[in-house]
Amino acid sequence: MIPVRKFDAIVVGAGGSGMRASLQLAEAGLSVAVLSKVFPTRSHTVAAQGGIGAALGNMSEDSWLWHMYDTIKGSDWLGDQDAIEYMCRTAPQVVYELEHFGMPFDRNADGTIYQRPFGGHSANFGEKAVQRSCAAADRTGHALLHTLYQRNVRARTNFFVEWMALDLVRNADGDVLGVVALEMETSEVVILQAKATLFATGGAGRIFAASTNAFINTGDGLGMAARAGIPLEDMEFWQFHPTGVAGAGVLITEGVRGEGGILLNCDGERFMERYAPNLKDLASRDVVSRSMDQEIKEGRGCGPHKDYVLLKLDHLGPEVIMKRLPSIHEIALKFANVDCTREPIPVVPTIHYQMGGVPTNIHGQVVAPKDGDHNAVVEGLYAVGECACVSVHGANRLGTNSLTDLIVFGRAAGNFIVAQNLQAVSHKPLPPDAADRARARLARLDTATSGESVPEVAHDLRRAMQAHCGVFRNQELLAEGVRKVSELEQRVLRTAIKDKSKTFNTARVEALELDNLIETAKATIVSAEARRESRGAQARSDYPNRDDVDWLKHSLWYREGNRLAYKPVNMKPLSVDAFPPKTRTY
Amino acid sequence: MKFRIYRYDPEKDKKPYIQDYDVALDPHDRMLLDALIRVKAVDDTLSFRRSCREGVCGSDAMNINGKNGLACITNLNDVKEPVELRPLPGLPVIRDLIVDMSQFFKQYHSIKPYLVNDSPPPEKERLQSPEDREELDGLYECILCACCSTACPSFWWNPDKFVGPAGLLAAYRFIADTRDEALGARLDDLEDPYRLFRCHTIMNCVDVCPKGLNPTKAISKIKEIMVKRAV
User: In chain A, what percentage of residues exceed pLDDT 90?
Assistant: First the structure.
């Protein structure tokens, strides 16, 4: 028999959103287990650089309503306006809380938190750029993640470090009762039974070849949800960050442009002035990435192959660079052989963030269509952070809003779960087949003696996604991509690993991750092929315009039947008037 | 490129051994981690930790040609062939390059690595001057990779009693924070022949820190404050 351990709540993932939620749960005295594939401070939140968005107004007048407008416009009107209002209104409070927890924000002369400009953030509904990004140098994610870990140490949160969740446990009613999980050091498989299961598993940028994401970002929550019959929302929308180091993919924060850095083509022209006359280099990320791609396509790229553009920041002076952007200086030296106090950094648009994910409401409850209700709650399951689609980012996320999303909704889900008074509720009985799917996946890997190599299939998947689901897409490219990904799906089923050890078998972990990557890739390319319009990060050269008549709606991809459904965008904010769709220019 | 890598799987190996590898690299392979991934593609039984591949998560600390460092920010041009890779010294090996870091984290946890301030917080942020905030530079950036503590002879000898450079750097990070109210208790906790005073300023920690931090300096600052408190 497979061992069972019982908790009030389990949190899968110990990044920013998972640890913000677990803090609420642990401090409320719930029995909570937080699972993480890596030691918590190694989660990918640690790599966030530029800041967390909140209208504190420390630098000049600001308002959460302006933040809300910018976020809706950034989302190309695909974001849900109730969730966006909630996030922007709550953002200042959660930033103050982080400061009270000890987060080492940079400071202004008056002692308040320093804020820098960031792409798409404006004052007075698009009038001019505003300083809204609360920063700890260019290490905001590191400062935030370590602070949350430290606060969880104080709260005596129970961490299961180097444990990987394999599959969800659902009963006949569809209620979620926990997860089946693998302890990596020993290969022990356990059912972790819970009254509330919260996914905070992060993104899946590793489905692309050129990505700013860490190796661990393999979409584990998406794979688990998809296999359990839960749809994935808006998966066609993937953000290309304008400034990844050319060739290496490592992130160069938008904060560089926030501090005054500019993009140049091979003629030394500041080309963003042509594409976004008002906000220029600080336009929304999808706009800047497309402009860069256009420059490169039209032969104005730099370098021997004319395949990148230049990010110039030496004019900021060594003092500003070393004070505000010290890690960028280090990254440029290490990954581009460039001393950015003197020379520009070669950059290309690089996959960075997944706007879609497991559909949820503003309490973090996972929702799926049922009996005519588009947003029926899946009992017992919650999702927050990058793996969730609440949806505040819609078709394109604004810089700094990812950290805001993590903290606002991690906290909200934690509070909502605490309010359920779970200690007074008993565990629902486990179905007899609770661990069957996970055990079958493990058994196949244990017994297969020959087959496809996991790194090779993963490599081919990343190449296919990069080639067929890039910055600019079209029908022919996408249809071919759908076919390739479906071939790759067959190869995933035939993988084999040589390593059969039970001790810290990382080959097995990578094979299990590939099961999640393939679900994410399928959801992405099938949703992208079907959406015949251009909106935010989905840019189709064959359908260059946004089409609000037919496509102002969320995609829902189901694994079973590889099919799509759609649901309306929530255009009703909680307390203010709606922002109706209009033309989007920067 | 040639590698000599420490191998040990407790399930089948009576004792550790060194395995030689010679793998073809791609021209785009830049860092040692890229090469290790090539090795693993050939031999999937080789186990090591890795995640961010840009030097901020602290997963892939190991002993590289005799010196601790992060594989992901060690340039292949800077290492002599054959590259000898061993697990971090002084911690129990779980398998291959993966060590059991419990003792390291136990020491980190022992210094109460969180801000202590029980005064009711203001409605907005607590104010801190830029100068006071600057005191935290060079302290808060630690990534807990353990390169420093596992290069420290004092930590090798007394991992259960000596906090070690990483833990002491964290201790000073909170001592130096104007928002923290537990200075006295923090100093009391460290005033001990082992916890703090096992540091003999050998400075291996400074030499290996992949983030360029200086735990020895932080340790001497703690000692200074303690002396001031005594007089």
Answer: 100
pTM score, whole prediction? 0.98
B223 touches chain A (CB under 8 A): no
Half-sphere exposure of A332 (CA within 13 A, CB side): 26
Nearest to A111 among B10, B128, B180 (CB): B128
- Asked if residue A105 lies in contact with residue A143, where contact means CB atoms within 8 angstroms, the answer is yes
Please give, one letter per residue, the 3-state secondary structure of A248-264. CCCECCCHHHHCCCEEE
pLDDT at A561 over 90: yes
Q: How many contacts does A have with B, using Cβ atoms within 8 A?
A: 153
- Mutation target to probe the A interface, by most A beta carbons within 10 A, among B7, B36, B51 is B51
Q: Which residues of A, range 7-66, sit inside 8 Å of B by Cβ?
A: 38-39, 41-44, 46-47, 56
- Contact yes or no for B61/B147 (Cβ under 8 A): yes
Q: Chain A partners of B28 at a C-beta cutoff of 8 Å? A: 247
Q: What are phi and psi of A548, to 5 degrees?
A: -75, -15
With H, G, I as helix, E, B as strand and everything else as coil, classify residue A557: strand
Chain B contact set for A140 (CB, 8 A): none
Spatial distance between the Cα atoms of A424 and B122, rounded to a whole number of angstroms: 34
**A503: nearest CB among B11, B56, B57:** B11
Identify the three-state secondary structure at position B192. coil
Q: How confident is the model at residue B102 (pLDDT cuts 50, 70, 90)?
A: very high
The 3-class secondary structure across B193-222, one letter per residue, is CCCCCCCCCCCHHHHHCCCCCCHHHHHHHH
pLDDT at B231 over 90: no
| Residue in A closest to B114 by C-alpha | A150
The CA distance from A282 to A285, in Å, is: 8
**Angle, in degrees to the nearest 10, between helices A81-101 and A64-74:** 120
Q: Is B93 on the interface with A (CB under 8 A)?
A: no
Do the beta carbons of residue B143 and residue B58 sit within 8 Å?
yes
Phi, psi dihedral angles at B47 (to 5 degrees):
-115, 130
Chain B partners within 8 Å of A106 (Cβ): 130, 133
Q: Which residues have a Cβ under 8 Å from the Cβ of A562 and sit 6 or more positions away?
A: A486, A522, A526
Supply A363's token pair: 């309490």
B 143-162 near A (Cβ less than 8 A): 143-144
Helix (H, G, I), strand (E, B) or coil at A436: helix
Candidates B29, B52, B59, B77, partner chain A, best to mutate (most A CBs within 10 A): B52
Helix B102-110, helix B164-175: angle, nearest 10? 20
Q: What is the DSSP letter of A431?
A: P
A439 conformational bin, left if phi > 0, alpha if psi -120 to 50, beta if neither: alpha
Residue matched to tokens 């370098």: A303
Token readout for A327 is 């890690």
Three-state SS at A377:
strand
Chain A positions in Cβ-Cβ contact with residue B105 (cut-off 8 Å): 39
Determine the Cα–Cα distance for residues A364 and A415; give it in Å rounded to an integer: 10
A509 in B contact zone (CB under 8 Å) = no
The span from the CA of B87 to the CA of B96, in Å, is: 7
Q: How far apart are CA A330 and CA A409, in angstroms?
A: 32
Residues A463-515 have pLDDT tens digits of 999 999 999 999 999 999 999 999 999 999 999 999 999 999 999 999 999 99
Report residue A246 as tokens.
């050319």
Give pLDDT tens digits for B166-225: 999 999 999 999 999 999 999 999 999 999 999 999 999 999 999 999 999 999 999 999
Nearest chain B residue to A459, by CA:
B41
Enumerate residues 6+ apart whose C-beta is below 8 A from B224.
none
**Per-residue model confidence (pLDDT) at position B230:** 87
**Residue B89, class by beta-carbon neighbours within 10 Å (0-12 exposed, 13-18 middle, 19+ buried)?**
middle
